[in-house]
Amino acid sequence: MVNDNDYDDRLADLVSARALHPDMATPDGVTPAQWEEVGRLADIENILFDDAHGAPSLHQDPVAAMLGLVPDPHLSLDGPALTRVRKGAGVAASELAKALSGRGWHVSTGDVLRWQTKNANDVSPALLKVIAAELGSTVEQLTVDRSNADESAALIAVTSSSAFAALVDRFALVRGVTTSVAASTLRSRALAAAHRGQVPTPDEWLLSLDAFVSALEDDD
Description:
Helix content: 55-70%
Organism: Pedococcus ginsenosidimutans
Radius of gyration: 17 Å
Protein name: HTH cro/C1-type domain-containing protein
Number of strands: 2
């Protein structure tokens, strides 16, 4: 049986895989209750991508943000670093693409080569975690901060505050992820909330994020 920490680490991968293959068999070690939860989240993920149902775009949806599916400029895949780490691990670009596809991600050899030499803005934090795992590396070793002045002053005020740093630590602890991934997830969730209505004040953003993290802690 997969323990709770391992299950939490695999959750985004399991959800994405089942969203792509709804009839796939229950993976080894996953309990019926866990697989039922994965199925519910996979249904949500599929709805996110179905414009015909009037769903919000991926960048605007808090569920996608929570699952780490929203690309984050603060945690952008660095092409030269990917090339260096991949070659150091003795993994061909085609082998990496095949491994990622086996985990349920639509990735081709061409995608890997593009990430290395041109544009990797479409790589989400959830996929970054999988890439790092496949290469025996870390998210921090593979990423670079490409954020810019396009972010609102309110969001900058939030994410540079000590209160946000404390929320990142709490989220990292309850979800069993690194602080960089935790910060990316919380930033994405904050942005998704802003895109769905009037931009909150820094205090409102922090209260919302605190409520989100507290709910996860209560469920843990």
